[in-house]
Structures are given as structure tokens and as C-alpha cells.
Specification:
Elements: H1 14-19, E1 23-30, H2 35-47, E2 50-56, H3 65-71, H4 74-77, E3 80-83, H5 86-95, E4 99-103, E5 110-111, E6 123-128, H6 136-139, E7 144-147, H7 159-174
Parallel strand pairs: 1-2, 1-6, 2-3, 4-6, 4-7, 5-7
């Protein structure tokens, strides 16, 4: 077996990426404190072609050396906006017809593997702070809550790992929409 070299990966340029269809998903980062997590989230968001990232509250924004260490250029390909208040970002998304979905352990949460978005539905996925999770005021505004089942002694994943797991699942639900470009 041989690894593929960079030329064999057939990667698109940033300009080409911007023209590709995206899955109808906005990821909302609710006060993420680690700049390395933010960079990793940019990179994963690029891989799964989301519409946009909303960076909220204390979440750092590009350009930022620490974000760039793990983003590896994805801050140039993934669209993003900054909001000082996560609830304001949520209200904007609701007004634009998005279904707001928190990724959190909560009463009434639905297991991720049982969630399949409806055709034509735009969704906003809310990911919370590494210690406190999704803030209580944001939880009051969500339409649905998804939870990743876990079976070990810990009760949470790193936020960038959580985002990767969730986007992998969601991307495959929307994959037919962008099949000709995958």
C-alpha cells in the first residue's frame, strides 16, 4: 500500500471551493475558548462543506496565529461571521428559517444516529464552551437537542471532536444534494 501524494488528492483551490455547493448547515460556536479547537473546527467545516461558521462571544476570530496552526488555511475557504452575543446570532438564523439544534446532553435530547434532516431544511448546529457547554440562555432558544451516545467513564468529547462526529453524520444525510461534486 502507498499513501497518495498531494497531486493525487485532487484538492480544489480556495476559489473553486467557494463555488461548490455546500450543505445547508451553519455551525454556531458558543464561547469556545481554545483557539486550537477553533482552528480544528475551521478545518473540519471545510472538509464537510458547511455554509458558514458563526463565531460568538469569547470565540476568537481570524486572523489569528493560534487558530491558523490547526486550521491549515481553512480560515480562507470557510465563510464566517462574528457575533458578540450568541442569542443574537440564533435570532438571526431563526429569522432566516433555520432550525436551531444544540449539541448537548439535555433532558429530551435525541441520539445523533436517529436524526436525519428533512430535505430542504436549513439547520444551525450550536456547539458550546469546552467547560460549560451550550449556555443556558441559548438552550432556551433551540428547536431540538442532539446528543452523541457515549459509553466510557467521561461524559463529554472535545468540542472539535464533537463537531467532527456530528458533521460526518449530517454530511452523509445531505450528500445526495452535492453528490456530483464529492
Amino acid at each position: 500500500m502507498r499513501k497518495l501524494n498531494m497531486d493525487e488528492l485532487n484538492r480544489v483551490s480556495v476559489e473553486e471551493f467557494r463555488q461548490l455547493d455546500k450543505i445547508p448547515v451553519v455551525c454556531v460556536l458558543d464561547n469556545i475558548r481554545s483557539q486550537h479547537n477553533i482552528g480544528s473546527i475551521f478545518r473540519t467545516s471545510d472538509a464537510f462543506r458547511i455554509m458558514e461558521l458563526y463565531l460568538c462571544g469569547i470565540t476568537a476570530t481570524p486572523p489569528n496565529r493560534e487558530i491558523n496552526k490547526s486550521a491549515l488555511g481553512a480560515t480562507e475557504s470557510v465563510s464566517w461571521q462574528y457575533f458578540s452575543d450568541t442569542c443574537a446570532a440564533i435570532e438571526r438564523l431563526k429569522n432566516e428559517g433555520y432550525t436551531i439544534i444544540a449539541i448537548e446532553q439535555a433532558i429530551g435530547s435525541q441520539p445523533l444516529q436517529e436524526f436525519f434532516p428533512e430535505e430542504g431544511r436549513k439547520i444551525a448546529l450550536v456547539f458550546g464552551n469546552e467547560v460549560a457547554g451550550v449556555s443556558d440562555d441559548v438552550m432556551q432558544k433551540v428547536d431540538l437537542c442532539l446528543e452523541i451516545p457515549q459509553f466510557g467513564t467521561k461524559h463529554s468529547f472535545n468540542v472539535s471532536v464533537t463537531l467532527g462526529i456530528v458533521l460526518y453524520h449530517i454530511f452523509h444525510a445531505f450528500k445526495n444534494k452535492i453528490q456530483n461534486q464529492v
